[in-house]
Amino acid sequence: MSTSSNTGLIANWEIRHSRSRNLPYYFNSVTGESSWEPPFGSDTTKLQHYMATQYSGSAQSGNNNTGGGQSIGADASSTSSSGVPTKVRASHLLIKHRDSRRPSSWKESNITRTKDESRAILLAHEARIRSGQITLGQLASTESDCSSARKGGDLGAFGRGEMQKEFEDAAFSLKVGEISSIVETGSGLHLIERTA
Question: What sections of 10-85 are H helices per DSSP?
Answer without folding.
Answer: 44-54
